[in-house]
Design a protein that fits this description.
The chain has about 325 residues and is of the alpha/beta class. Helices cover about 30% and strands about 25% of the residues. The strands form three sheets. Strands 3, 4, 5, 6, 7, 14 and 15 form a seven-stranded mixed β-sheet that branches. Strands 10-9-8-11-12-13 form a six-stranded parallel β-sheet, with helices on both faces. The chain is globular.
């Protein structure tokens, strides 16, 4: 028997979430690797699943948890054997396949990547999908020629998981980072991560002109909607925007003007289905570039029972940085 968060649908369509005991017979038949999960996380999508605020769960009952790290218990997959250290991010886990807010999970070996040497399971989950997505965004900007000499980089949703890690990575690489947040009381925290300036998200969140004064060499955006549209309208000639989130909305009320008049590039960044080679490249860089003291500023550790209470808080934007879940705690 092992502990897990289990989601069931009530007769009225609402979601029942509880920490309960499960056994191996309740794990999905699909999957060729059984793992012991040491640490998981709470991401925005996990918050939606646990609270039932959006229909992200496609199969019932469901164990949420799109992230996990620990060790392999048993495997019939050729790339994995008992004792191997793994990281899982995405692949629909926690939505259509039981996830990692559980002491045990049964997963597909093709979804897993090796945990970098010297990185603990806790460190991996302190980074999690949010940090891995942030690195994918930074990689995308660099591949478009945006370098530390190009100019200021805007990071929206700055106090969240993606934003916090993006600021830390960019600042460590020598970029000048401007953080946009709705929590100006977090300015000291954001500057401690490396932000040179903190601005109020209100400056970007309302409808704006299709072309505005040029400022940003690059943007990491996890917000979408008017915030993304305004950010694009302010990007300097030849700059690039990496878009990875929709906290404000899925809409993009913008004009083609920045793209055809300023040669701005808008790059969509997906972490859920990213190919294995791309994942390994991102995690390899995370392992060397994110310092322990930086992760300590970003991370708060909770246990499985705590996760139920924190889920609505992450949806309400009340979480700073990352929540790492000690599933055995």
């Amino acid at each position: 028997m092992f502990n897990a968060i289990l989601l069931n649908k009530n007769e009225d369509g609402s979601t029942k979430a509880e920490v309960t005991k499960m056994d191996d017979t309740q794990l999905p038949a699909e999957g060729d690797v059984t793992v012991a999960v040491d640490f998981s996380t709470i991401n925005y999508k996990d918050g939606l699943a646990i609270t039932g605020k959006a229909p992200v769960v496609r199969k019932w009952p469901m164990v949420p948890g799109i992230d996990g790290s620990g060790e392999v218990i048993a495997s019939t997959h050729p790339d994995w054997k008992a004792g191997d250290a793994f990281i899982l991010n995405g692949w629909g886990v926690g939505e259509g396949h039981m996830g990692c807010l559980s002491e045990r999970a049964k997963l597909k070996g093709d979804w897993l990547i090796p945990r970098p040497a010297g990185m603990s399971a806790r460190t991996a989950m302190s980074i999690g999908t949010a940090g891995y997505t942030a690195m994918l965004c930074v990689m995308a900007l660099a591949e478009q020629g945006v370098n530390p000499d190009s100019g200021e980089i805007l990071v929206t949703g700055a106090s969240g998981g993606v934003g916090s890690v993006a600021i830390a990575i960019l600042a460590a690489r020598g970029y000048k980072v401007v953080a946009s947040t709705g929590k100006l009381e977090e300015a000291d925290y954001l500057q401690s991560l490396g932000a040179s300036e903190v601005i109020d998200r209100a400056a970007l969140s309302a409808p704006g002109k299709p072309l505005q004064k040029e400022r940003w060499a690059g943007v990491v955006d996890s917000v979408g909607s008017h915030t993304l549209a305004n950010a694009v309208a302010q990007v300097r000639y030849g700059g690039a925007v990496a878009a990875c989130g929709l906290a404000q909305g899925m809409d993009f009320p913008a004009s083609v003007a920045p793209f055809i008049l300023r040669s701005v590039k808008l790059i969509g960044v997906d972490s859920v289905m990213a190919p294995k080679a791309r994942r390994i490249a991102a995690w390899s860089q995370l392992a060397t570039e994110l310092k322990a003291e930086t992760l300590a500023k970003i991370t708060q550790e909770i246990n499985l029972a705590d996760a139920l209470a924190w889920a609505p808080k992450i949806l309400a934007g009340q979480v700073r940085g990352r929540l790492v879940v000690n599933v055995k705690g």
